[in-house]
């Protein structure tokens, strides 16, 4: 009998041990590779084993200050688990410019029409991680999708690339399924290398393809390796975007003088190699080649670039350690970052967000609805109060009566003041007033656009609300807010900014980013004070409509500019934003690339810039919805990238 009881207790204890909900695995960034001031993916694997009840709730992540342990931001995504289940979740986390730790928890919730209710105060499972030191902004963060045996880590991994002690940091993706599904996941990456991987939709989903292309448009650099990789590139989703046509694979039996700068010569034992014969497309820039063969080609893609190698850098003779080091040091230091990302080395010293926040604070108090009401009520009241005290406080009355009059008058003054504010809070609708300053980047070739909006929120009375955002909109505070009210971001359906405390006296300010489809041929977007810019040459176009057939027919005289955007004939908010962008050099990369050794006219980026306040008329643009309780004031700087396929080029 005693043996049976012992066996039963052992079975009960063992069963209880397997009745658990657990955060099984957490991966931050790319093998802990990330940059401060950038977004990073957070991958979490959650397992439930013989749980007594299904789990319905959230996977929540608190970004905490490493030293004070106070919460800075809170992110959440919906999570449902059956009694025995395994789920994989990915969130995108903004990494502030301070040391952080991440506190991850599973929280049971119940949703109603207005808010989310937390069922249990104690989380079902928790885990805490402390990310390592971030990669410096000036360093090269290289993400590689390649099979095992790749030698790029040996060539440049943590090696000094120039006199400024700039280093290369290599991180490998285990497979194509580890690629981010949103462009923001690549935020910290400078350059991505793809070699010997199938690039068909069967291997890489449409969503991951879209995320990669959008990241390139925002300044990323994609490098694809050639040689025997011809079979992977031909018919792939990237083929149509390459700077060259892939004709055929061939064997080169003699090292060209163009390649000898990397330490290759014709006397090497292995001097033959596989190569892809290229034919250039419009917009192709030959970085290295001869009249017969292009070895390295590049094209601009939005504010990013795509580089195609005719040879395989991982095969002889290019896989030789000395040759590989020389080649990749040259490629990274000359073309490893797009002009936009190269300029981000100055990001730690820029103060544009502080200045934009001050611009929102400069809004005159009389423009706040509650103060408008008080501005009307109080003068009337003060005149009445003055008359009251003048009449009852005249000298003919006794001192006692005058004192009573003053006390009664003072109490009435306080009562009416408090009542006016109380009535205003009860009677006036709790409207949200938002001021938005945006930069809209349009990419006609892909028929899409990126919107970056600096946003200020106020209400007529103090209120706590949740704001629905367009799907896949990534938002963060413009400044790190008070720790007493950390921002909460919900990445689900819909995306939300949750539990925002708003008031009339001081605005809450945020910056949000999103990609969305936009065909300029379907929507008439009118730009005021428009300029066409090629390198440092600017042509004033005045007021125009975004129609490529018209953009190049106007040929007024051009002038040389050294700051962008031009602030001629601007005033108000437009003038203020233009001054901030000029002072901080945020768009200076459009005029001149600092890291290009030689830039000819064909390589200069061609853009159209102008101003509009009518974006809400374009239905596809994901602005915060406006209704009777939401009013918006918009000013937008539009940047349209003109590729070589546009008329007139």
Account of the 3D structure:
Residues 3-18 and 594-602 have low confidence and may be disordered. The chain has helices at 2-17, 152-156, 206-217, 230-233, 321-335, 339-342, 352-361, 369-392, 399-427, 548-551, 572-584; strands at 20-28, 39-49, 55-65, 71-81, 85-94, 100-111, 116-118, 125-129, 140-145, 168-172, 191-194, 221-224, 244-252, 273-280, 285-289, 294-301, 304-309, 432-443, 448-459, 463-469, 474-477, 487-490, 495-502, 508-517, 526-534, 537-545, 558-560, 606-612, 630-641. It is of the alpha+beta class and 649 residues long. The protein is built from 11 helices and 29 strands. Helix 7 (352-361) runs antiparallel to helix 11 (572-584). Helix content is 21%, strand content 35%. The protein is globular, with a radius of gyration of 30 Å. A 9-stranded mixed sheet has the order 21-24-19-18-29-28-25-26-27, covered by helices on one side. It has 4 domains: 19-129, Immunoglobulin-like; 140-346, Rossmann fold (3-Layer(aba) Sandwich); 365-427, no CATH class; 431-462 and 503-649, no CATH class. A hairpin with a 4-residue loop joins strand 22 (487-490) and strand 23 (495-502).
Shape: globular
Low-confidence stretches: 3-18, 594-602
CATH topology-level name of the largest domain: Rossmann fold
The helix content, as a percent range, equals: 10-25%
In total, the number of strands is: 29
How far apart lie the N and C ends?
93 Å
Number of domains: 4
**What do the pLDDT scores average to?**
83
What topology, given as strand order, has the largest sheet? 21-24-19-18-29-28-25-26-27
SS-derived structural category: alpha+beta
CATH level-two architecture of the largest domain: 3-Layer(aba) Sandwich
Cα-based radius of gyration, to the nearest Å: 30 Å
CATH class call of the largest domain: Alpha Beta
Instruction: State the CATH superfamily name of the largest domain.
Output: Class I glutamine amidotransferase (GATase) domain
Number of helices: 11
The largest pleated sheet is described as: 9 strands, mixed
Proportion of strand residues: 25-35%
């Amino acid at each position: 009998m005693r043996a049976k009881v012992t066996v039963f207790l052992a079975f009960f204890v063992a069963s209880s041990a397997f009745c658990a909900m657990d955060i099984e695995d957490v991966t931050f960034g790319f093998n802990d590779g990330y940059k401060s001031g950038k977004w990073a993916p957070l991958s979490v694997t959650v397992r439930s084993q013989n749980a007594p009840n299904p789990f319905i709730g959230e996977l929540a992540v608190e970004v905490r200050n490493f030293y004070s342990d106070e919460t800075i931001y809170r992110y959440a995504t919906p999570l449902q688990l059956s009694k025995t289940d395994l789920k994989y979740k990915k969130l995108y986390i903004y990494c502030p410019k301070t040391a952080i730790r991440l506190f991850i928890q599973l929280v049971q919730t119940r949703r109603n029409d207005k808010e989310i209710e937390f069922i249990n105060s104690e989380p079902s499972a928790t885990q805490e991680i402390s990310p390592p030191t971030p990669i410096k902004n000036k360093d090269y963060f290289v993400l590689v999708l390649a099979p095992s045996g790749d030698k790029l880590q040996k060539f440049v991994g943590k090696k000094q690339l120039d006199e400024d002690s700039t280093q290369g940091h290599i991180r490998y993706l285990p497979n194509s399924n580890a690629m981010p599904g949103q462009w923001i996941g690549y935020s910290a990456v400078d350059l991505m290398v793809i070699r010997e991987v199938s690039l068909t939709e069967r291997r890489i989903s449409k969503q991951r393809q879209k995320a990669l292309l959008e990241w390139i448009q925002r300044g990323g650099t994609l490098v694809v390796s050639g040689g025997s990789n011809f079979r992977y590139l031909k018919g792939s989703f990237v083929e149509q975007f390459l700077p060259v046509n892939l004709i055929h694979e061939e064997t080169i039996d003699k090292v060209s003088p163009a390649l000898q700068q990397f330490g290759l010569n014709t006397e090497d034992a292995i001097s033959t190699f596989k190569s892809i014969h290229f034919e250039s497309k419009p917009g192709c820039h030959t970085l290295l080649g001869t009249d017969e063969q292009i070895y390295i080609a590049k094209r601009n893609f939005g504010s990013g670039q795509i580089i195609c190698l005719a040879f395989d850098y991982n095969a002889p003779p290019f896989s030789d350690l000395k040759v590989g080091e020389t080649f990749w040091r040259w490629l990274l230091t000359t073309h490893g970052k797009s002009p936009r990302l190269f300029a981000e080395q100055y990001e730690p010293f820029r103060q544009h967000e502080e200045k934009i926040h001050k611009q929102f604070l400069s809004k005159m108090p009389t423009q706040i609805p509650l103060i408008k009401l008080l501005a009307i009520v109080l003068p009337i009241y003060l005149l009445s109060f003055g008359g009251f005290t003048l009449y009852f406080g005249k000298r003919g009355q006794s001192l006692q009566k005058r004192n009573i009059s003053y006390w009664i008058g003072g109490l009435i003054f306080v009562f009416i003041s408090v009542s006016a504010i109380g009535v205003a809070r009860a009677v006036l609708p709790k409207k949200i007033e938002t001021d938005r300053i945006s930069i809209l980047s349009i990419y006609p070739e892909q028929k899409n656009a990126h919107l970056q909006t600096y946003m200020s929120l106020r209400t007529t009375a103090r209120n706590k609300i949740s704001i629905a955002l367009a799907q896949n909109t990534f938002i963060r505070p413009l400044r790190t807010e008070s720790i007493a009210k950390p921002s909460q971001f919900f990445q689900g359906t819909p995306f939300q900014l949750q539990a925002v405390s708003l008031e009339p006296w001081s605005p809450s300010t945020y910056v949000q980013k999103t990609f969305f489809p936009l065909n300029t041929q379907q929507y008439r977007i009118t730009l005021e004070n428009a300029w066409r810019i090629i390198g440092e040459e600017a042509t004033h176009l005045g007021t125009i409509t975004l129609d490529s057939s018209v953009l190049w027919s106007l040929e007024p005289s051009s002038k040389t500019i050294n700051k962008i955007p031009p602030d001629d004939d601007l005033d108000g908010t437009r003038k203020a934003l233009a001054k901030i962008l000029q002072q901080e050099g945020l768009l200076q990369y459009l005029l001149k690339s600092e890291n290009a050794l030689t830039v000819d006219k064909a390589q200069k980026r061609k853009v159209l810039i102008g101003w509009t306040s009518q974006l809400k008329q374009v239905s596809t643009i994901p602005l915060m919805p406006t209704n009777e309780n939401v009013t918006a004031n918009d000013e937008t700087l539009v940047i349209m990238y003109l590729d070589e396929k546009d008329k007139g080029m």
